[in-house]
Design goal:
By secondary structure, the chain is of the alpha/beta class. Helix content is 19%, strand content 26%. The chain is built from seven helices and 22 strands. The strands form five sheets. An eight-stranded parallel β-sheet has the order 8-9-11-13-14-15-17-21, with no helix packed on it. The termini are far apart. The structure holds zinc ion (ZN).
Length: 410
């Protein structure tokens, strides 16, 4: 008997595989040498997948009136979710299975699944057991069923939005290089990077390539990718790097050439890079830009000069300031490595994750309104180091919180 409809196949041996997209499929019952089989053919299994009826472990028919049923097999450990086009056919189909199970001699015709059922050119590429996938020009949702993937190459594709379920794939390499992401068309903060917040990918991704994607702000969600070792952001429009990049403790290879960076975040200053490429940026120059540097570094002296008038007042400020609840939240989130979706927290907090930084003295996270910025110059530590000739030394932007500044002056 042939049943057509939408079918999704869940592999129960792979943990966390919950949402599998249904595919238009054909389901056929057949008998070969006295053994009964159920065969499914769709774009994921163009050459059919066979299940022995004897391996059927459970049949759920609670929603059979809606044309839906679920079959669970022992071997392979798959759960088949059926959504039949024809409800009556589903009734008959389930009746037939029941007859087979109860040992009746069910006669099945030798009918074959018609060849015209999904026969796209690229069907074989979406092999659910493949380790690597290279997309031709766009993201295809069938990729989300490939739960054994190690590397996902989505280069030079049109990717108006990346589904967050990419984050459920256990990939170690993701390349979006040259693709058209939604980075330029709207306000950058409104782009969600939820895939970075997912548990699976945050524990597997070691290499992320996002060269030439028109990126203006590196999303703070990058800090959730704790296993990241290799990050490539060349040929974008980055003006600065968020301080939270310093939370990526395993990072040892960074390419940020051909951007618009003026400084590097100071919390990368002591990192031992295997490879670092900072060439072709807009770094300020120690000699040429003395005025800019002075502007940054003199603020703290102004602050101290004004405060010098009343030492008692300063001691009071340090000791009695209430802790800011926003600051407490952000510290707690970052220090406990809590992952979240951007849209789940108040919008007013987003900018703090872009701009908050660790104080260079107490190493606590501080909010923009509570730190001073300093510029200093030093060469990074990298085995393979690429830079442009016009900069002699790299400028670093560091933060120092009011509290540390005040305490150091008491
Ligand atoms: Zn401090």
């Amino acid at each position: 008997m042939l049943l057509n409809g939408l079918i999704s196949i869940q592999d129960l041996s792979i943990p966390g595989q919950t949402q599998i997209r249904p595919l238009r499929s054909s389901l056929l019952s057949k008998q070969v040498n006295g053994v009964y089989f159920l065969t499914i053919k769709n774009s994921m299994y163009p050459n059919c997948i066979n299940y022995k009826v004897a391996d059927l472990e459970a049949v759920h028919t609670k929603f059979v009136k809606d044309g839906k049923a679920t079959l669970r097999f022992k071997q392979p450990k798959h759960q088949i979710l059926l959504n039949a086009d024809d409800r009556n056919m589903l009734f008959m189909f389930l009746r037939q299975i029941q007859d087979i199970i109860s040992g009746k001699d069910v006669k099945i015709g030798t009918r074959q699944i018609p060849k015209k059922i999904p026969s796209k050119k690229d069907v074989n590429r979406f092999d659910p057991s493949a380790h690597e996938f290279i997309a031709a020009d766009r993201f295809d949702k069938r990729i989300l069923n490939m739960r054994q993937l190690h590397s996902l190459i989505l280069e030079n594709c049109v990717l108006p939005s990346l589904p967050e379920h990419i984050g459920d794939l256990p990939i170690s390499l993701l390349s979006l290089t040259g693709s058209k992401l939604a980075t330029a068309s709207q306000y950058d903060q409104d782009i969600y990077w939820n895939w970075m917040s997912k548990n699976t990918i945050s524990n597997t991704l070691t290499s992320l390539k996002m060269d030439s994607v028109n990126l203006k702000i590196l999303p703070f969600e990058i800090m959730f990718l704790k296993k990241l070792q290799d990050l490539s952001l060349a040929k974008n429009k980055l003006i600065n790097l968020p301080q939270c990049i310093g939370e990526l403790k395993k990072l040892h290879t960074l390419s940020i050439s051909d951007n618009l960076l003026r400084f590097m975040p100071d919390n990368l200053i002591n990192k031992q890079f295997k490879s670092l490429d900072v060439s072709n940026n807009h770094f300020i120059n120690e000699q040429r830009d003395a005025e800019i540097i002075n502007n940054f570094n003199s603020k703290v002296y102004e602050y101290n000069k004004n405060k010098q008038v009343n030492k008692v007042e300063r001691i009071k400020t340090v000791n009695t300031n209430c802790i800011n609840l926003v600051l407490l939240t952000i510290r707690s989130i970052i220090n406990n490595s809590i992952r979240f979706y951007r849209q789940e927290i108040p919008r007013t907090l987003w900018r703090y994750f872009d701009a908050a930084g660790r104080c260079r003295k107490c190493e606590q996270f501080v909010l923009p309104q509570a730190y001073f910025e300093f510029i200093h110059f030093k060469n990074p530590q990298a085995i393979d180091y690429q830079w442009s000739n016009y900069i002699t030394v790299v400028p670093w932007l560091s933060f120092e919180c009011y509290k540390c500044i005040e305490l150091s002056c008491l």
